[in-house]
Design brief:
Length: 251
């Protein structure tokens, strides 16, 4: 089977995906716990497999010890380079693309992959990665993982958008604009729902400048958004982590 996709830059970093890993344990924990074969694919792990290694150890600690992670890479050099980190059957590295190399995972994490594709390639990639029924977490973050955004995609359709920031270093939520998923980044212009969302978030952040520190400020910001009537899907326990999940702002 020929892997579907194209080799792109392999930039990655230890701990870069900790924010989304925490979300996966929370959002997909039950799915994984109830699965007969709790398989998770890390699609496009990059030049080194460090974030796949971390995903396996975080899910094993937080969800179930027998969770299996397969890192898929379209670049064969990166697949060979990752083999010393394999720990079968818990952690393996194989060549594959959006077709998922014939595997049927429960969850797919694809981070900083689609940002290097054209926007009109996104829908087909989403469909391919969810074709066997997996829940897809597809997103983007900065080099150190301090600012991240991701979509949850089911049956090829995005259902939610999550914004997540390391609060002590967050100066203003406007920084999310340059880290939006590929499907939204070109639609952050007046009149589009994602633009309205970021504007409202920015206004609420400016209004809630409290002396109590960034965690309280973010919590008050999200509460204000919710009180203004915007649909906020998560609650204070997630807000305290610097997260906000909303229905997908369809362009
Ligand atoms: C920027 S790296 C991301 C590494 C890691 N996921 C992270 O967020 O730090 C993107 C990787 O995705 C790989 N890639 C791109 N398209 C792919 C596809 N269709 N299937 C599998 N891997 C792919 C590239 O070869 C590259 O190594």
């Amino acid at each position: 089977m020929k892997p579907v996709g194209a080799i792109t830059r392999g930039t990655t970093n230890p701990n870069r995906l900790r924010r989304v890993d925490n979300f996966i344990a929370y959002r997909c924990g039950r799915l994984l716990t109830e699965a007969a074969r709790p398989l998770v694919i890390d699609l496009g792990y990059g030049a080194t497999p460090v974030t796949a290694v971390e995903l396996r150890s975080r899910l094993a600690a937080a969800v179930r010890s027998d969770v299996a992670v397969v890192g898929l890479e379209i670049d064969p050099v990166r697949v060979s380079g990752a083999q010393p980190f394999a720990d079968p059957p818990w952690l393996e590295f194989r060549r594959g693309g959006f077709e998922l190399a014939g595997l049927a995972p429960v969850v797919v994490r694809a981070f900083n992959v689609l940002r290097q594709y054209a926007e009109d390639e996104v829908a087909a990639a989403w469909r391919a990665m969810t074709a066997t029924g997996a829940l897809l977490i597809e997103g983007t973050c900065d080099e150190l993982g301090r600012i991240a955004t991701w979509a949850v995609v089911e049956d090829g359709v995005p259902t939610t958008l999550t914004l997540s920031a390391r609060l002590p270093t967050l100066e203003h939520p406007a920084v999310f604009a340059e880290r939006l998923p590929k499907a939204l980044i070109h639609h952050n212009v007046p009149g589009h729902p994602v633009h309205e969302l970021l504007r409202a978030l920015g206004r609420a952040w400016e209004t809630e400048a409290t002396p109590f520190g960034p965690r309280q400020r973010w919590t008050a910001t999200v509460r204000r958004l919710r009180d203004e009537g915007r649909p906020v899907l998560d609650g204070p326990a997630r807000w305290r982590l610097g997260e906000l999940t909303v229905p997908w702002p369809r362009p």
